[in-house]
Amino acid sequence: MNEQDYAIEVRNITKHFKLYTDRGTELKERLLFQKRNHYEVRQVLGGISFNVRRGEAVGLIGHNGCGKSTTLKLLTKIMYPDSGEIIMRGRVSSLIELGAGFHPDMSGRENIYTNASIFGLTKKEIDARLHDIIAFSELEEFIDNPIRTYSSGMYMRLAFSVAINVDADILLIDEILAVGDTNFQTKCFNRLREMKAKGMTIIIVTHDLSTIEKFCERSIWLNDGQIVKEGRSPEVVDAYFNFMNQKRLEEEAAPAPEPEPEETPEEEAPAEETPAEAPAEEAPPAEEPQTAENGVDYSANRFGLKYIEITRARMLNSAGKDVRILRTGEPLRIEMDYRIHKPLDEYVFGFGFYTLDGECLYGNNTQIDRMRVATDRKTGMIAVEIPSLPLLKGQYILNVAVVDKDGTPMDFYRNYTDFEVISDDRSTGYLQVPHQWRTET
Questions:
Q1: Is residue 436 part of a domain?
Q2: Which of 16, 52, 98, 399 makes an SS bond possible with 352, Cβ 3.0 to 4.6 Å?
Q3: Considering its fold, how many domains does the chain have in total?
């Protein structure tokens, strides 16, 4: 391919920054406390190279601090590399920082002229585009107000409207589309698609992987200032997704602290009497404790008659380790240690998975599964094994409980622990549903 077919060429660029530990802000401080001006040199980019073809949309992905935004600032020439070469062919427009180049005391209209002139437009060219810029931003009634009165969403609308109306050959975007309402984001992406179809070269830095997959044919994954993978967006995104999942698992060096069990002294065990009837389901929370005839406070986080109590619960992964980070599709074993203070004919153990908002995703107990738990021992452990965890990526809550055969709570532990699920499954929602696509002719 002829080099003129490339809109952007990045050749072995490096960039380092000085990180001061305690630097004085004034000249007097720097002179009097020179020893404080210690710094370390940190490499942000370590010799990366890539090319972008004309009319191509490329996504830069990676975790915070990997060098994405620095790369974009080097492309805009906000800063320059320590070594290497960057070749940009054509007029460049950028959305790097919200409201960059805007003066807070000037009106929106005045800032359009100022900002557009930074991109190289003459006053005559700005005059010709002014109506389109204001119309796209949807700020007609506010355009003559000082932009210090604008919200962040209004800032973004104005900045984006200017950037897409300068007839640029290359557009650089850094997370700017995360601001604003859903309708305006959709409007922005539709305009970007139009510009891309007309041959504009676009580079987007974002943590929104779905945006990268939908909009960018190609992606570049940066990690610690190096290119880890470059190629078709779905392949690069999947590799990055798997890497971040594994990293999240490795970050959990030790299991989360267990809740302290609430010991019930033997002499305070409940008297030998039959518990009163209680509803099978827990009552909704109330401002004042809801206390039934049996003395149970259903508004508490943990409630019950304590004839039996759960002394500890564990979530074990496929390696048998008690963890709070699990993976979709892997085996899960939930264990509950218990102590019986008063034997009854039957005790029912249960568990439930909940969202952080308290929505029940799944619940089950030994009574539903026709399993009878022996109560002739003072202590014991019961476990439920889930061959394949169906929860998708997200944060969840585990509830554990033991009730009598009529549903009277003995030890109902609401919000026992929170846990996180990581997943290679890109489906939306909460649950993984096994499926297979087929085509028929």
A1: no
A2: 399
A3: 2
Query: What are the pLDDT tens digits along the chain (441 aa)?
Result: 666 789 999 999 999 987 766 655 566 665 655 555 667 888 889 999 999 999 999 999 998 888 898 999 999 888 899 999 999 998 888 887 655 678 889 999 999 998 888 878 889 999 999 999 999 888 999 999 998 898 878 888 888 888 888 888 999 988 766 556 677 778 888 888 888 888 899 999 988 888 888 889 999 999 999 999 999 998 999 899 888 888 877 776 545 555 555 554 444 444 444 444 444 444 444 334 444 556 677 778 999 999 999 999 999 998 899 999 999 999 999 999 999 999 888 899 999 999 999 999 999 999 999 998 877 788 999 999 999 999 999 999 999 999 998 889 999 999 999 999 999 888 889 999 989 999 987
What predicted TM-score, i.e. pTM, was given to this entire model?
0.69
432, part of any domain? no
Closest CA to 116 of 170, 165, 150, 176: 165
Cα–Cα separations (whole angstroms), residue 181 to 141, 146, 152, 156, 186? 18, 22, 11, 10, 9
Q: Are residues 222 and 159 in the same domain?
A: yes
Closest alpha carbon to 400 in 344, 345, 357, 337: 337
The Cα–Cα gap between 327 and 246 comes to: 10
Burial class (CB in 10 A: 0-12, 13-18, 19+), 256: middle
Answer for the pair 157, 137: CB distance below 8 angstroms, yes or no: yes
Q: Does 300 lie in the same domain as 247?
A: no
Q: Is residue 318 part of a domain?
A: yes
Which range of residues forms the domain containing residue 360? 296-422
Q: Does residue 107 sit in the same domain as residue 181?
A: yes
Q: Output DSSP code: residue 243.
A: H
CATH number of domain containing 154:
3.40.50.300
The domain spanning residue 310 has which CATH number?
2.70.50.60
Same domain membership, residue 338 and residue 227: no
Task: Decide if 139 contacts 158 (C-beta within 8 A).
Answer: yes
Is residue 437 included in any domain, yes or no?
A: no
